[in-house]
Design a protein that fits this description.
Blueprint lengths: L3 E5 L11 E2 L11 H13 L3 E13 L4 E11 L19 E5 L6 H5 L3 H9 L5 H6 L5 E2 L2
Antiparallel strand pairs: 1-2, 1-5, 3-4, 3-6
């Protein structure tokens, strides 16, 4: 297992406050998932990365909206390391980050409804698809 970057959401985040998860971004109209993944790196992490693998997708009904979330594995392509304090975004700005080789650190956020953590943990063989899709109201696996 390679290391992955975990980010912590601010405590006042309505859906996943204080949880550790994976960086995410809302796609703009006509933006591809790959371009959105690149943008999360530049806007929320201050680094450059390229997509290398699609992990999965999921639809979920959240408290205030519906989402379709896709996990895309990325690789850093510059010497600049991710740094949440360098965020240039009006969306959710993360309050902490850490590199981890232990995917189990994302189990609490998956239990709280994090799609990206659930998809990642399923890809790592730590969650069964039916365990996390059935535990989330309105959830539907897309990919």
């Amino acid at each position: 297992m390679h290391e992955y970057l975990a980010v912590r959401r601010p405590e006042d985040d309505v859906d996943l406050g204080g949880n550790w998860g994976l960086p995410a971004v809302t796609l703009r109209p006509d933006e591809s998932p790959e371009d959105g993944a690149r943008r999360v790196c530049t806007e929320k992490l201050g680094c450059k990365a390229e997509p290398i693998r699609f992990l999965g997708a999921m639809h979920q009904v959240r408290n205030r909206y519906d989402i379709v979330l896709m996990d895309i594995e990325m690789i850093l392509v510059s010497t600049t390391q991710p740094d949440v304090s360098q965020a240039q975004t009006t969306a959710t700005a993360y309050v902490a980050q850490k590199w981890s080789a232990d995917p189990k650190e994302l189990l609490p956020s998956a239990r709280h409804g994090s799609c990206c953590s659930s998809i990642f943990l399923q890809d790592q063989g730590l969650l069964k698809r039916e365990d996390w899709t059935l535990s989330l109201a309105g959830s539907l696996l897309v990919g």
